[in-house]
Amino acid sequence: MARSVETRGPAIVDLPQRHEALLVLDIDEVVLEFITPFCRLLEDHGARLHPESFRLTGNVREISTGAALSGNRLDAITEQLYREQDVRQRPVDQVHEALDSLSRRADIVFLTAMTPSHYDRRRRTLDQSGLAYPMIATERSKGAVVAELCERWSSGPMVFVDDLPPNLAAVQRSAPQVRLLHFMANDTFRPHLPPLPAGAASADDWPEAAAKIRTWLDG
Which InterPro entries match (predicted)? Predict the structure, then answer.
């Protein structure tokens, strides 16, 4: 029997709608730091990140032996980070100012692929960080979720922001009318980024990202 796909958060039909435009944001490396606290946690486990490609597996090694950590061990460390995210993950620099300004032009929804079982903890982390926008955590394709959001926000512009090019590509396939922005707060993996989908833009910080998003929303 196939495993059911889990989603936590408000139903799309119940999301507040105050604007015609919608801004959909990934969370890790877009709204909350991920790589920086993950690297600090690796140090606690006697390991260090050596980015040589766009992935974690094979690029995290034990400090003492140089041996690469297994995927299972990396998954366990990632799970620890999510369990402790309220004390480890901090808002990305200048995200508050950017979203406060953009929220006057568009509704904002967070869309994360973080394991939905951590939903309540992440919701508290965001609220305590002053980022109280609606959040959906899902194991579904982000493209499918964004396509459903497009049905609700059908009359205005829509922007999707994510740090992973495959997620941008998934949204482009499912909802080609959505404007795409690649954003990654930590630049560790930027030299190894796979190609962005055609037409996608990129930004290195939130002031630059907000300026591009405003252009799309006002266009």
Answer: HAD-like_sf, HAD_sf
